[in-house]
Amino acid sequence: MSKIIRFHQTGGPDVLQIDNVDVAAPKAKEVQIRVKALGINRAEIMYRTGQYVIEPQFPAVLGYEAAGIVEAVGPDVTEFVVGDTVSVVPAFSFADYGLYGELVNAPAHAVVKHPENLSFIEAAATWMMFVTAYGALIEFGKLEAGETVLIGAASSSVGLAAIQIANMVGATPIALTRSSKKRQALLDAGAVHVIATQEQDLISEVMALTDGKGARMAFDPVGGPDAGKILQTLSMQGIFFQYGALDNRDIPVPVMDILSKHLTLRGYELFEITGDLDKLEQAKNFINHGLANGELRPIINRTFAFEEMAEAHSYMESNTQVGKIVVTL
């Protein structure tokens, strides 16, 4: 029997409960992991509250990221052996797997051996943030040295990952945040510039920082009416990646900017990378290289104990963190 966190109805953090569950032996192409740490993600909040892209089937499991030690491997799994230290990439559906547990199964294609210079806590905080940012900035956006990228909700774990990746390739990351409260933390995290969008004029600030050229790319999980201003700050042939809907109102599109600058407005999600084995392998290689040489490093905001999962969810919903929230076992 293993302690697994599940929910039997949608709702607030209090619907999460610890159940004792018989965990099956890993099937073909599965790896069983003794979990040491779990990364908490916005998608899990949305799933728990019934606002995610799939409907939960009760009792519902959840959890995209974990790090731990291989306990067993299923038939045909040759790349991992018992005792390997591994972490998990979000490359599956909650309908099939969930990692909130002491002992869990995960698909082998989503499991990676992480560099020895990472702790379990760091490893559990790595893959969602870096793969999400990598996919837009590098795989699809082709961000290059000397270019400028605007990073919305920059204090989120994905925003911080985008800052590091931009710096890794020699681009200039401009962090967008609502107020100045997180300005110094974002500068400390590697942002070259920070714009407080509720206190400063976004368009004039970006134009001043880019000598009137505008930013080549924007990477934003917020959306809503204010995203129209971001579009106006883009350069010729600029691209806007919308990867979330923290504000689910429609984006006003500045038609003349779209036409005159030949802009691209593109929806993007993590599964465009994790659902393609070739793209996923390229992402793993890029991120492992950055982790190994220290150019990439997950920023941990706070840790909670496994029994405090509801508190961890509540803390994420407070939107006060700068960096990743991790639960330890």
Structural features, described:
This protein is of the alpha/beta class and 329 residues long. Helices cover 29% and strands 27% of the residues. It has 11 helices and 16 strands. The strands form 3 sheets. Strands 3, 5, 6, 7, 8, 15 and 16 form a 7-stranded mixed sheet that branches. The protein has a 6-stranded parallel sheet with strand order 11-10-9-12-13-14, sandwiched between helices. The chain has a 3-stranded antiparallel sheet with strand order 2-1-4, with no helix packed on it. Helix 4 links the parallel strand 9 and strand 10. Helix 3 crosses helix 4 and helix 3 packs across helix 10. 45% of the residues are buried.
Helix and strand run: EEEHEEEEEHHEHEHEHEHEHEHHEHE
State the share of residues found in helices, binned by percent. Answer: 25-40%
CA-CA gap between termini: 16 Å
DSSP summary, beta strand count: 16
Structural class: alpha/beta
- The geometry reads as globular
Uncertain ranges = none
The biggest sheet amounts to:
7 strands, mixed
Number of helices: 11
- Strand percentage lies at 25-35%
Give the overall pLDDT as a whole number: 95
Q: Tell me the radius of gyration.
A: 20 Å
